[in-house]
Amino acid sequence: MPTTVKAYAATSATEPQKPFEIQRRDVGPKDVAIDIKFAGICHSDIHTARSEWGPANYPVVVGHEIAGVVTEVGSEVTKYAVGDRVGVGCMVDSCGECVNCEAGEEQFCLKGMIGTYNSVGKDGEPTQGGYSQAIVVTEGFVCRIPDGLELDVAAPLLCAGITTYSPLRHWGAGPGKKVAVIGLGGLGHMAVKIAHAMGAEVTVLSQSLKKQEDGLRLGADHYHATSDEDTFSALRGQFDLIVNTVSAQLDFDKYMSLLAVRGALVNVGLPEDPISLRMFSVVGGSKNFAGSNIGGIRETQEMLDFCAEHGIGAEVEVIPAEKINEAYERVVASDVRYRFVIDTATL
Ligand SMILES: [Zn+2]
Ligand SMILES: [Zn+2]
Q1: How much distance in Å is there from the Cα of 15 to the middle of ligand 2?
Q2: Where are the coiled-coil regions (predicted)?
């Protein structure tokens, strides 16, 4: 029998989210049932709940930064046991057979990965996410949360953590490398912490100096306001890597000018409209203008282990479910330091 669990759902693009009940499937042979303890609020949740990225399939329960405890495992599950602390991120399944799945990059599954919410599972049912008290996921898409990490600060690692860890790892952040992070929000604050832990020299590029104290406390070595034109002349040609975490239109030519020869500006934010970039900014200095999309399951586990080893969690504000709608307004207004996390016991 499917299990009924409490959740919070968006029922239209314009109405506030409200208490709702959803069904979770029976635990199949390869499934893990998870009692969700905390769910982070990612800006993608808001875009989906409000149909800003195309029409959502209502009612939709969003949330893809999930941390909890295993309550039941299927007969063929080998990786997990009841009581294990685990997390689930942006995807819950994929074909498992294509070249990208084989390579452990399930996010690029050629048949399309199955999103944690607003997607359709292999059972033909809509997937529903983490703003709920339990979830059933095939074991291959479950990650272990090491003992050193508290579940509330671990939850945001499943999206914000891997989204920033993957490009930092791929582009070689580490000792002797100068890394800049554009924007100090939910993604940016994780990028600063992780890049610092990797041993890079970290600079925050933020609109103003309002969060400078936080930035330095989180591990940045330098902090500059991009509203100050002197920033761009002072930092010209300096960085091996720039991770852009903002989803706004930027003067990308100006940011490219901050890169050293063969440096990379990697985007994890998604502005709604096409951007403008002069090819001179890329070709001159043989630079890279790149993007990065979450990470595979194997890399997500590597990131969780790395964060536990270095004592890195997200900076969180834990809220009860009744504050979800208010929290959305605050995320949109950039009024959060630095991630809201829902205590799912309050659903
Ligand atoms: Zn997310
Ligand atoms: Zn695949």
Answers
A1: 35
A2: none
Cα-based angle 331, 337, 340 (whole degrees, multiple of 5): 55
| Confidence grade of residue 272 (pLDDT, cut at 50, 70, 90) | confident
Task: Name the architecture of domain 161-291.
Answer: 3-Layer(aba) Sandwich (3.40)
Distance 65 CA to ligand 1 centre (A): 7
DSSP 3-state assignment of 328? helix
Cβ atoms of residues 171 and 266 within 8 Å: yes
Correct CATH for 3-158+295-346 of 3.30.2090.10, 3.90.180.10, 1.10.1240.10, 2.40.50.100: 3.90.180.10
**Alpha carbon separation from 106 to 139, 169, 290 (Å, rounded):** 14, 17, 19
Q: Which ligand is nearest to the CA of 65?
A: 1
Helix (H, G, I), strand (E, B), or coil: what is residue 159? coil
In this structure, the strands spanning 222-225 and 143-144 are: unpaired
Q: Measured at the alpha carbon of residue 50, what is the angle toward residues 105 and 157, in degrees to the nearest 5?
A: 40
Share of the chain above pLDDT 90, in %: 97
Q: Phi, psi (5° rounding) for residue 66?
A: -110, 130
The owner of tokens 């490009």 is 167
Domain ranges of the chain: 3-158+295-346, 161-291
CA distances from 82 to 17, 34, 72, 298 (A): 32, 9, 6, 21
Beta bridge partners of 60: 10
User: Are 190 and 99 contacting, i.e. CB atoms less than 8 angstroms apart?
Assistant: no
Q: Which ligand is nearest to the CA of 95?
A: 2
**pLDDT recorded at residue 2:** 80
CB-based contacts of 27, cutoff 8 Å, min separation 6: 33, 72, 73, 74, 136
> How many angstroms does the Cα of residue 125 sit away from the middle of ligand 2?
19
